[in-house]
Prior knowledge:
Elements (H helix, E strand, L loop, with lengths): L9 H15 L3 H12 L4 H17 L4 H8 L3 H10 L1 H17 L10 H12 L4 H7 L4 H10 L1 H20 L18
Helix pairs in contact: 1-10, 2-3, 3-4, 3-6, 5-6, 7-8, 7-10, 9-10
Amino acid sequence: MAAYPQGESSNHDGWARSVVAGLVTPPETIDHTLVSVLHGTAVLSEENALRRADAIRAAALGLPPAACAAAAGISEALLSDWREQDPSFHAAMASVQAMAQAHGRHGDEPGFSAPELRLVLSQVASGSTLAAATALVGYSTAVLRRLRSRNPLVNALVNASTTHRQQHATAKKGTTPGNRYRLVQREER
């Protein structure tokens, strides 16, 4: 990732593009690749374990359920099903949500946390609208607009995410954004 820009705002655009490029290929891709390397193909139980870990991490960072699902690359309905069907997963999610609430941000003014901003940027870069992405983390576009006007680096990041979405939409005409599906091997039990 490019070094944090200091000084002239002309440096912000290139820095923001490199940050957004890093968001579009999330680190969990490495985990999924390693599962395939070890087993010759993707394995459903390991895929689900990775996605559960992503959801738990998002909850520990204080993200709401819809954002936890998005961070894990699953639907909110699937996240809810997992919680209903797996008492240990439900307990883990409840525990980290309580921890996030107890140790979360303090102060009266609402504002984006780093994990919330990361999710908004990656959702926009992947094809979501700003309104949908900000709603996912529980904010309106007005809150993001105020943050962008106060912070030129955030503004550059949002612009880079929007530009990335537009460039890739043009390159992939006919495809729709959203969850991507891969074939995985189910183990026999």
